[in-house]
Amino acid sequence: MKVRHIAIDGVASSGKTTVGKILSKKLNYEFIDSGLFYRFATYRVIELNKDPLLGMAKLSKDKYKEALSGISIDFKDGKLYVDGLEFPLHLLRQQMVDELVSPVSEDASIRESITSILRNIASNKNVVMVGRDIGSVVLKDAFLKVFLTATLEERAKRRFKELIANGVETTFSKVYENLKLRDMVDSSRSIAPLIVPKDAYVIDTTDKTVEEVIELILTFMKAKEYALQHSKNNI
């Protein structure tokens, strides 16, 4: 049976990761968060820029192309493997990675490398992949494409609640402005900008529960299955 790919894109804090994880479990598909790979690339760039004596040197873009070259990367059962060894994911949640992941992710060579890696990982398995350019770039031929959105205020509320729960000191207005800026950067970047992919189902999650969003996606899957079967019968 041909592998099935479900691409879930959307604006920041629209619920992509939460929805993707639960949906993948229901379908017994592999869940892949593309953001994890950009964090890994950022971690590698940081390591390559470190001086043994001086510590972190000024971030050099010359190291970007080296970050993912000469190593093999795989992902299975929620674990990242680098050159055959499991990579400790907690290293990707460091503050320095948080601060530098955006500029590293915008680099053309980084995006090209990660797109190739993601396609290779998904080539022989059913996956639910989430990100910002999955349906438009990474998995253009995905069986199902979904784009999640929500009002800026609702997304800021969700993000603020999440940060406070994790012990991060911030304000709602700061979170709101950060998301507003993130939207502008994501949609206006020259390389793989955030857009609604062709043939994608758009879901506004503002007033919907996670369960309601997942039920909608499952309904869309059934409709795609029916259409596919119907087209086969008419051949």
Can you offer a commentary on this structure?
It is built from 9 helices and 10 strands. The chain is α/β, with parallel strands linked by helices. It folds into 2 domains: 1-29 and 127-235, Rossmann fold, CATH 3.40.50.300; 38-125, no CATH class. The strands form 3 sheets. Strands 2-8-1-9-10 form a 5-stranded parallel beta sheet. Helix 1 packs across helix 9 and helix 2 (34-48) packs across helix 4. The longest helix is centred in the C-terminal third of the chain and has 24 residues, at 210-233. The mean pLDDT is 90.
Q: How many domains comprise the coordinates?
A: 2
Largest sheet: 5 strands, parallel
Report how far apart the termini are: 19 Å
Q: Round the Cα radius of gyration to an integer and report it.
A: 19 Å
Query: How many β-strands, per DSSP?
Result: 10
Indicate the CATH topology of the largest domain.
Rossmann fold
Average pLDDT across residues? 90
Helix content: 40-55%
- Helix and strand element order: EHEHEEHEEEHHEHEHHEH
Assembly of the depicted chains: single chain
Q: Judging by the overall fold, what is the CATH architecture of the largest domain?
A: 3-Layer(aba) Sandwich
Mind telling me the CATH class of the largest domain? Alpha Beta
Strand share of the residues?
15-25%
The helix count comes to 9
